[in-house]
Amino acid sequence: MALQRLSAFARRIALIALLSPLLSLVSVSTASAFPAAAVTAPSASSVDATPPPISLTEALAQLKQTQAKQDSIKQQTSASNNSKDLDALSDATQQLSTDVDKLRSQIVPLRAQTQAQLDVLGPAPVSGETPGTEAVARQRASLTARKDQIDAVLKLADDQKANLDILSAQFAKLHRGLLKNQLALRSSGIFSAQFWVPLMHRSPEDGQRLDAFDAQVRAMLRSVWQPGQRGLTSLLLAGALVIWLGGRKLVQRGLAWFCLNCLPATRLRRSALALSTAISTLLATAVALQILYLALARHFELTPALSDLWDEVTKLTLTCALISGLGRALLCTHHPSWRLPALADQVARALRPFPSTLAALLFVSGAVEAVNRIVDTSLSVTLLGRGLVSLVTALTIGAALLRANRVRNELAAAGEAPETHSTVAGLIHAGTALAIIASLFALAIGYITVARFITYELVWFEIVLCGIYVLMQLNRDICASLFSANLSSGQQLKNLLGLDDKHLEQVQTVLSGLGTSLLMLLAVVALLTGGFGTTPADLLNSFIGIIGGQRLKSLNIMPARITNAVIGLGVGFYLLRSVRRWLDREFMPALGMDPGMRMSLITLFTNVGYVLLVLMTLSLLGVRWDSLAWIVSALSVGIGFGLQEIVKNFVSGLILLTERPVKVGDMISIAGVEGDIRRINVRATEIQLPDRSTMIVPNSQLISQNVRNVTMGDSTQGVATLVLTFPLDTDPEQVRDLLLGVFREHSAVLETPAPSVMFSQLTPDGITLSVTGYVGSPRIAASTKSDLLYAILKQLRAAGVTLSNPRTLLVQNVPTKNHA
Fold first, then answer.
1. DSSP H or E stretch at residue 646
2. Does 188 reside within a domain?
3. Torsion-angle region of residue 757: left (phi > 0), alpha (psi -120 to 50) or beta?
4. In a domain, 812, yes or no
5. Segment Disordered: which positions (predicted)?
6. What CA–CA distance (Å, rounded) separates 725 from 808?
7. Rounded mean pLDDT of 604-627?
8. Domains held by the chain: number
9. Residue-wise pLDDT tens digits, 72-118
10. Distance between CA 813 and CA 398 in Å, rounded?
11. With the C-alpha atoms ordered 443, 449, 455, 458, is the resulting torsion angle positive or negative?
């Protein structure tokens, strides 16, 4: 054994001695060209056969640059929307793929060289290195580490190559999709044989893609049709069919019973029945779809293609169900009295089959188009599917228009009264006809994508129009029934909130108009942001996106804050009215305030309360006052030019309510007009004249002009003064006693202060006496003076005293004497 071990050791020493020159050469070359995991360049003899090798450091740097360029291309792809940009990015991707191939070809020789060196050294002994061979072990470990580094770089290059290939395939798909969606793309028209070629012959590429997709569908069906699963699958399919056909009728009957028995006998029943018809169809279809999903995919994990197909089929089915439901709701051939639009029975019956027919054709053709899109078929097959969709849609809608017009013409020829149409209905009818003609013309000349766009937009417009029409009718009828003074709901609101019939009508008008405005906004959002196949959830997201747009975000307004602001406004308005009623009826009368003081304080309290309520509402909305700087600037400019009078009257009204130079109930005289103040508003004051008419005086005039307040002051007495002129031969004392007697006998004249007679003046026309008496109120001074004049004239005639006649100068035309 010892001799054998010695012999083996000698053989190893001899092998090391033979390989030492080669190992020294490898060590020198490795130390000089790969001090930091680098490799020397190949010899000149190998330059012609393979590309020159490259160091690992340079290879890693180039791969990092390639990855950065690839990321940049992906970012640019998301923003490109034309074929030219996609072609440029695709060319750049191909160039990067070529560079990676070249780099990989430069790295492969390095790995081959390293592997050859390892082969020369041989594998490591199982029992470990023997003494004296430590240099070989170190050399083997170094070469193994270098080989692992080269393998890592090659793997990184292979990964980048695979990613670039995938990116190139995606560019091709994007290019095809962009080409398919170009409205200006022109192909063969429907009257050309080339348009129908894909029906008879399909390309190998399309066949492979359709077969692969068909294999996925078959696999899904096999998973639910295995022994032991067929019974449950059949039961679920039958249940989906029963719910789709019978469930709709059952739900519709239940909703109809509720509308007829629980809703008031108003127009609300008609609109609610129409909505229930559409909802029952949509609800039954949605439930049937869920059961169908359980029947087909309960034991199969859907692939991305099948998941995409199911989403498209779901949207398409619900949209077609909505078309059918709205058609039945608006035509309502079984119950003409429930029909919302003004359609003749003959016209409604003639149009009855078209909504369901259109829905079925749209479902079939739309499903075919969805499969073409998911499978990514060729351009000719895609255009064929879109052309079929456009053709069946245009022909169905056109046939419905022609049939309706024919029935109307027959009714007119029979002498029956025509239907009443508004201008808007006529414009919609004409626009629909023009859209159908444009779609058929585009199909004839080869603009298939244009025709599909027109027909889909037309169908979506009809869906939005019919849906919004039903909702607007329902909104109007709900408001009319809820706030009707003749119904129990309106009477309960009157008793609960203390409203009058006039207030109920105002609330009805405001809420109806607000609901109509929101529905019209929803229609605009649906038409601008939606399209055929858009779900209610998509519309809601679009609506919320617009409501939460940048303009409202700048004001910090959000839906939750809008709700809080509405609730706060309602509660604040109710509290303000309640406090105002308590002040007017309980608190201020208990303090003994006069009516004028109460009215002034209540008006001031109400105005201040409204201002605080508006500020509180804006605060609940989250409005930042710095965001309203532009509003303040606009108001300043408006005040400087056109609102200065309004602001002046407003400030004057506040001054009148605080300083109270005049108050409600005062009798004033301004600009020769005398009357009682009935109300002081924010802008103007209402003055009731003696003839019971009302004069509106701006508040600023009561501040800036001279105003005579008859009732202002501590005394509430009035003065009745009469000035009479008598002839010079009249006994003044006799007349004085007569006048004082008349004043003392009148019941309205006060004893204290006592009536008095003053000798005013003595003139050639006679003597002037002024008699004065005090009455209980200035308001009866005029009537008292009238009574006193009647009595004085009667007493003067009885005493034989006459009043003085003023002297007048009469000038007459005297004829001149003729001196001739």
1. helix 644-659
2. no
3. beta
4. no
5. 67-86
6. 16
7. 78
8. 4
9. 777 777 666 555 566 677 777 878 888 888 888 888 887 888 787 77
10. 97
11. negative
